[in-house]
Amino acid sequence: MDKYDLVVIGAGPGGYVAAIRSAQLGFKTALIEKRGTLGGTCLNVGCIPSKALLDSSEHYLKAKKEFEIHGIQVSDLGIDFPRMIARKQEVVDQTVAGVDFLMEKNGISVLEGRGSFVDANTLTVNSADGKSEQIQADRILIATGSEPASLPFIKLDGDRIITSKEALELPALPERMVIIGGGVIGLELGSVYARLGTEVHVVEYQNAIIPTMDRTMGKELQRAMKKIGVKFHLSHGVKEVLNAGDKAVVKADNKKGDEVTWEADYCLVAVGRKPYTEGLSLDNAGIAVDSRGRVEVDAHLRTGQSHIYAIGDVVKGAMLAHKAEEEGICAVEHMAGQKPHLDYNLIPGVVYTWPEVAAVGKTEEQLKADGIAYKTGSFPFKASGRARASMDTDGVVKVLAHAETDEILGVHICGPRAADMIAEAVVAMEYRASAEDVARMSHAHPTFTEAVKEAALAATGDRALHI
Ligand code: FAD
Ligand code: NAD
Prior knowledge:
Elements: E1 2-9, H1 13-24, E2 29-33, H2 40-45, H3 47-65, H4 67-70, H5 81-105, E3 109-112, E4 114-119, E5 122-126, E6 132-142, E7 146-148, E8 161-162, H6 164-167, E9 176-180, H7 184-195, E10 199-203, H8 215-227, E11 231-233, E12 237-243, E13 248-253, E14 259-264, E15 266-269, E16 273-275, E17 308-310, H9 321-335, E18 349-351, E19 356-361, H10 364-369, E20 374-380, H11 385-389, E21 396-402, E22 408-415, H12 418-430, H13 435-440, H14 450-459
Parallel strand pairs: 1-2, 1-6, 2-3, 6-17, 8-15, 9-10, 9-15, 10-11
Antiparallel strand pairs: 4-5, 5-6, 7-16, 12-13, 13-14, 18-19, 19-22, 20-21, 21-22
Helix pairs in contact: 1-9, 3-5, 3-7
Nicotinamide-adenine-dinucleotide (NAD) binds next to helix 7 and strand 18.
């Protein structure tokens, strides 16, 4: 029986990054993956393919709506949807092949199949072709990720009632799509299809989209997405979803209690994801899960067994690729006797719509609820010269700082390249910068980042310059 210093179960961004760190630290490492390719949800059916389609659809929309204004003439503009889907798959294939290379380069043994516990130090790997192998491990890392959640009365059939996985590989451009959930997946994939001409309806239970983010962000984004034709139905409780053969039928009650019905080519269910531990036989290793099915871990990501750790979507916290990565590194370094630290408050969250939304730290609603005295400064992109030049004037930067110390407590951006700009706020907050610190830093002109400086100026005594 092969024996390893560390065996990682699941090759998503959490698991494969942890395996690399493990090899760097000198552990004899194996990585078990049941999918035919490495990279997990993120690379195969999540982050990467969704961003590929977001970019393609944004190019199309710009060509359709903005090129003429720029003085660029295009004739016969059209959409070859199968080509768009094929390009997305090319991007995925290249990206997952890159992970194969990284595993080889780092001398990591990749074992294809489903891993399950025999006992706390023994795993079985059952491959799709019926082969079975047992291995021994001194340390084990569970990184088995998550799968789409649903509502109790909805049967996800992959035909008319679909998840993000099918929405990333539809055979043809739909005429109508109803999306249940105005969260990250609903808004990113809703943007893709709305830009390409699909009539998109977003049905959200709460009274705001992206309801867990700072409320200003949801308002800004909703206004921008309405411009590309997305129809929002907030405060609607979905009660029935049916596959009627050639269409999906969705019924909900609105705020007044009246029934509303939509018919569409597809109903995309995007109401969150749930941890995935199927077939792991956690009981055989004495590992507990909580009431939501998440593997229970302590502050060092250790399960009840001191040599078995768990990370990423399968444990508590935000379901984000970079959170899974950082946890993977922390878990492995802790196994190696190091003292890593991860500040969950400083993990940024991004929605890759256009404008993008990106945030780090506390929202205004959280500061209010926690009774923390704060100041706020905002700067709209319509006052940015860079944004006017690129026709990206929707959105705003909002900086929240402590009322007395001026320490930055949260930065929320709805705007062009917000996903990239949030890194400045993460660095600033990591070093506990004040709004004044950021306001006094030189920001290249003209850049979108000047809006961050201006919002910081606004937070330090209403000193914004360009508004
Ligand atoms: P996963 O990526 O889910 O990987 C787990 C792996 O474990 C899978 O490959 C699975 O096959 C394997 N596995 C499970 N059980 C076993 C077993 N018993 N044996 C062997 N293998 C097993 N996050 C972002 O940060 N940015 C984004 O832009 C973003 N976009 C997204 C878009 C979509 C459409 C979706 C669905 C998700 C997106 N996410 C994004 C979330 C991100 O994909 C997850 O947070 C991330 O993949 C979690 O990483 P993980 O390593 O914990 O698990
Ligand atoms: P989400 O939690 O972001 O959004 C789910 C939405 O569905 C919420 O707004 C919620 O209020 C709503 N909802 C719940 N029940 C409902 C009901 N009965 N009727 C109508 N609306 C209802 O979940 P998601 O969009 O499915 O994404 C799943 C996970 O994947 C998230 O945790 C997210 O972090 C991750 N993800 C991240 C990115 C990114 O980082 N850019 C992109 C996609 C997915």
